[in-house]
Write a structure and sequence with these properties.
- The structure is a single chain.
- The chain is α+β, with helices and mostly antiparallel strands.
- It folds into 2 domains: about 240 residues, Jelly Rolls (Sandwich), CATH 2.60.120.650; about 110 residues, no CATH class.
- About 30% of the residues lie in helices and about 25% in strands.
- It has 11 helices and 16 strands.
- The strands form 2 sheets. A 9-stranded antiparallel β-sheet has the order 3-2-4-5-14-7-12-1-15. A 7-stranded antiparallel β-sheet has the order 9-10-6-13-8-11-16.
- A hairpin with a 2-residue loop joins strand 9 and strand 10.
- Its main location: cytoplasm.
- It is found in: Cytoplasm.
- May play a role in cellular stress response.
């Protein structure tokens, strides 16, 4: 079957492409084979609690270690036996913690060996992408990514080993009303809801929200449209995934909006003398206001120049999206690649929801009912000023004012 995604509307709907062979390797990519490929290279693993009483466990709330895949395999297969002293996982029980190494770029993992950069080829699904444009994800059972959407680009995910559960929500659903930029992470906008909770009461406000639930299996490639919310959970003992992002025509606008959000959050943190660990996700840096304003000013100037260039070449009445010629507007997978359309259903009908219990006495539910303190009130202010509609308004006003000053 040949799938041609010629309409921009096709890029607003999730798909699964199956029967793919993205990896160009004679051996299957098991955890053991990954360990051989990476040799003794240490990877950044985060360890999170499998069960949490309250709140959401973001990356900043996890433990972080550097360990080899061999260490990970030994720990993940361990049954209450004492690990060797030099195993970085030795302080964490695999019954209490999950481990996840994510966002690992191939160009960094195999920087000293170009031959490995030819192992990944996305051309089967019509993408001119290879290992250089790909990232690797390795996790244990229970590893998850909190519900979020990516501000830049569109996303293709290949499931290599084990299975993962995906929950997908359109930007038009009520999930968007639950967005939070605390913790702040560039290009990731989180939803303020704990999807690993086993208490149905937590999901009362979203039980009727249209949801796409997927069990992604080895060989499946999932296409995630721009700004679609997604929660990802590892179902099997070990899961391995690859992904690649494709830039979109309006990513330059999104980068400017991200800089506005960073400036607002950094300013409030500085004014209240907050430490980076309080409101920033792991590996994010608190940049000073002068730096933020300088970058924001440059981005606005670039955006204005880009719009002027487009208007000089094209009919101003033509929609901006049609002025752009990008490789991912048309995607033509190989003839043997199948496409699965995905159907939405109310969240309360998903397997994820059905596995939860009604527990009105949950500590988590009680926490939600508590009166907010000063810290929570300040968080609410940040959520208000960094919400998508607020940032959109600020961006629009900045562009208008800059255009007025630019006129002779």
């Amino acid at each position: 079957m040949c799938i041609i995604m010629t309409s921009i509307n096709d890029l607003n709907k999730p798909y699964i492409f199956n029967s793919t062979s993205i990896i160009r390797d004679n051996l299957p990519w098991t955890p053991e084979h990954i360990a051989v490929l990476l040799k003794k290279k240490k990877l950044p693993f985060r360890l999170g609690k499998r069960i949490i009483d309250s709140g959401i466990q973001f990356e900043k709330d996890c433990h972080h270690i550097q360990a080899t895949v061999e260490d990970f395999i030994q720990w993940n297969n361990n049954n209450d036996q004492i690990l060797v002293d030099n195993n970085e996982f030795s302080n964490y029980s695999n019954k209490d913690y999950f481990a996840y190494a994510d966002y690992m770029h191939f160009r960094e993992l195999f920087a000293d060996d170009d031959s490995f950069l030819k192992l990944i080829d996305w051309s089967q699904i019509g993408l001119r992408r290879n290992s250089i444009d790909s990232t690797l994800w390795i996790g244990s059972q229970g590893a998850y990514t909190p519900c979020h959407f990516d501000t830049y680009g569109i996303n293709f995910v290949l499931q290599v080993f084990g299975r993962k559960r995906w929950l997908l929500f359109s930007p038009k659903t009520a999930i968007s009303k639950m967005q939070t930029r605390i913790p702040y992470e560039e290009s990731s906008v989180y939803a303020n809801i704990n999807f690993v909770s086993t208490n149905r009461q937590i999901f009362e406000s979203i039980k009727d929200v249209d949801t796409i639930e997927i069990i992604l299996k080895p060989g499946d490639v999932l296409f995630i449209p721009k700004h679609w919310w997604h929660f990802v959970y590892s179902l099997d003992k070990t899961t391995i995934s690859l992904n690649t992002w494709l830039e979109q025509p309006d990513d330059s606008v999104e980068r400017t909006k991200e800089m506005i959000s960073r400036y607002l959050i950094s300013s409030i943190m500085t004014a209240h003398m907050y430490e980076p660990t309080q409101w920033l996700n792991h590996n994010e840096i608190l940049t000073d206001n002068f730096t933020n304003l300088t970058i924001l000013s440059n981005l606005l100037q670039q955006q204005q120049q880009q719009e002027r260039d487009e208007n000089d070449i094209h009919d101003p009445a033509e929609p901006p999206i049609k002025r752009c010629c990008v490789e991912n507007v048309q995607i033509m997978p190989a003839h043997h690649i199948g496409q699965i359309s995905l159907e939405e259903k109310p969240f309360c009908q998903t397997m994820h929801y059905q596995q939860c219990k009604n527990d009105e006495s949950s500590k988590e539910e009680k926490q939600l009912l508590q009166e907010p303190d000063e810290f929570d009130f300040l968080k609410n202010i940040v959520r208000a000023v960094t919400s998508s509609d607020t940032i959109d308004f600020i961006y629009k006003k900045l562009i208008e004012q800059s255009s007025m000053h630019a006129k002779p």
